[in-house]
Amino acid sequence: MSRIYLSPPDISPQDHASVEAVMASNWIAPTGPALDEFEATVASRVDRSYALALNSGTAALHLALQVLNIQAGDAVICPTLTFAASANPICYLGAEPIFIDSEPLTWNIDPDRIKEALETHKNIKAVIVVHIYGQCAQMDRITELCELHNVPLIEDAAEAFGSSYNGKPAGSMGDFSFFSFNGNKIITTSTGGMLLSNNQERIEKARYLANQAREPVIHYEHKSIGYNYRMSNLLAGLGLSQVADIDRRIAGRRAHFEAYKEALERLPGISFMPLAKPDTANYWLTCLTIDPVESGTTRDQVLAHLDANDIEARPLWKPLHLQPIFQDKISIGGEFAAGLFDRGLCLPSGSGMSNSQRQFVIDSITDKFKQSTQTL
Ligand SMILES: *Cc1c(COP(=O)(O)O)cnc(C)c1O
Predict the structure, then answer these.
(1) Separation of 352 CA from ligand 1 center, angstroms?
(2) Domain 13-244 -> CATH class
(3) I want to staple 70 with a disulfide (CB 3.0 to 4.6 A). Which of 10, 65, 132, 185 is the partner?
(4) DSSP H/E element including 75
(5) CATH number of 246-375
């Protein structure tokens, strides 16, 4: 059996056909009709008025912060339990991240600590909320706090395409939202992202910056520093077939989560990521924690055992306040997220993973626990 990966791309014959059709059209230079269609499809799927396809989610966040005029001396709230890409663009603009601990209900940014931050730091100019592992954060409270303090809200929905919160799609809330279509996400364009908003002027400003800040004249005229951040029409062709397949992808990942839970929850010391409302998550990755005292083994021993069986698993995100590059930044709490990092594990969750591959992962973990109890 070949190596089982954490979250590899899931490419169907429809994806091949969709990319081939763009190739045949010769719209690869790099804009074209597939890009427009991809933007419109994603925007309508998540109830947004305007969308801008980009070459990464990171680029989307950078543009959102820039359009909101974040600059040196400003502070931006960001959860600590996330990928570094949720915070790096704050630093591109010379602003300072303020990291916030997770809450236990969803593992997302803790609204009580956002409140504390907004009341104590007067230079906070934006809040970034992340829907970690495809489960939405407590958006009602967070939105209310941002409105009360008149601070714009950016939804990092990189991991949450297809999720929802109280009937609202992930990516439909906040002043801006963005998705990532990187190869490991629930739908992919190889690399890619999308910025969304209901404010046309803001999206058009971002589109201008993403396109080298070219002025709308026949020659090359520039009044601002721009970026080369646009998605190619060829990759938008892949995005179109991927987005059409989102329901099957969520169902596949959910089936993995449920089978893992059924088989592994009874092992001593294993707890699954809590799901506040199971029907609203997209099940991007199955995550669990292993308590070393109760289980007689450790997360790292389980990881090593899986690797020896040619199974790729990973620890949860290492909290950003513990990253060497961010060690001098302000962090409000962080102990809960640090505990998750010590004990947390993500299991192979790809929608293309077969049931027999999944069973092999389950058997490998069960074997490791049996060995551990025998040696106690
Ligand atoms: C993947 C990811 C990003 C970055 O997206 P890219 O497309 O890889 O730039 C940002 N935030 C989170 C939470 C992510 O998981």
Answers:
(1) 21
(2) alpha beta
(3) 65
(4) strand 75-79
(5) 3.90.1150.10
